[in-house]
Design a protein that fits this description.
It contains seven helices and eleven strands. The chain is of the alpha+beta class.
């Protein structure tokens, strides 16, 4: 009977914060710091990323309500790291690198400043939120972001006829081509594959870009995350798509 209860007890401890999660929480901190800006003071929800020289892995954490961040030693080894941040509308005042030695916890404060141009930082979700129009009009845009960002659409100067020509050219590319490495399909797809409403879509796109001058709509950004977030690690890829 006791043997049958053991898996249930272990599962309960894991869900309650035991197991790997508890071990990670108790791990000593290899690198800590605080993120601030002149505009906001302590900044919550800023993604702070660390990448060791020569590594293909970037580890990221998120600042808490006091602007504090910490990398546990279980996630960072000793070595030289470059730190980067993600907070739409902000950038580091200067590049930051730090030498991490696990036996000597380090603390580095990061100061941010407002960017002059927020558009390179906007995500595709933020571009879609900024674009005027109904959800039905915008629906086809979700199929665009596998090959390029919507920043390219917004900053283009095509009129409706120009977008039609671009869409015809794209029909000759293989699925999941990248803007910097387009791959021609073995057999060109018919223009209809882009949808029966491609003429309407091209006309709509021409209302979103700079073909008539500056944008007539407000650029919208999503709020930063709140409260505590998990540490994440991800390998870098060779793809260089815009954020």
């Amino acid at each position: 009977m006791r043997r049958e209860l053991l898996p249930a007890v272990c599962a309960a401890l894991f869900l309650a914060g035991g197991g790997p999660a508890l071990a990670a929480a108790q791990a000593p901190e290899a690198l800590t710091g605080r993120v601030t800006s002149a505009e906001e003071g302590a900044m919550e929800g800023v993604v702070v990323s660390a990448k060791r020289a020569g590594s293909t892995v970037t580890t990221s954490v998120v600042t808490d309500s006091r602007g504090r961040f910490s990398f546990p030693s279980s996630k960072l080894g000793s070595g030289d790291y470059v730190l980067r941040i993600r907070a739409t509308g902000y950038e580091l005042e200067a590049p930051v690198s730090v030498d991490v030695v696990l036996a000597l916890p380090r603390e580095v404060d990061l100061k941010l400043r407002k960017v002059r141009d927020v558009t390179p930082q906007l995500t595709n979700a933020e571009w879609i939120a900024s674009f005027p129009g109904s959800p039905e009009q915008k629906k086809f845009l979700y199929g665009c972001v596998g090959c390029h960002t919507l920043e390219r659409v917004a900053k283009s100067k095509h009129d409706a006829a120009g977008f039609q020509a671009v869409m015809k050219r794209m029909a000759g590319y293989a699925n999941n081509s990248h803007v910097e490495r387009p791959q021609c399909a073995c057999r060109a797809r018919p223009h209809a594959r882009l949808g029966p409403d491609s003429d309407k879509q091209a006309a709509y796109l021409a209302t979103l870009n700079q073909s008539a001058g500056a944008w007539s709509y407000e650029l919208k950004t999503l709020p930063r995350v709140k409260a505590r977030a998990r540490v994440s690690s991800s390998p870098n890829t060779t793809c260089r798509a815009s954020p």
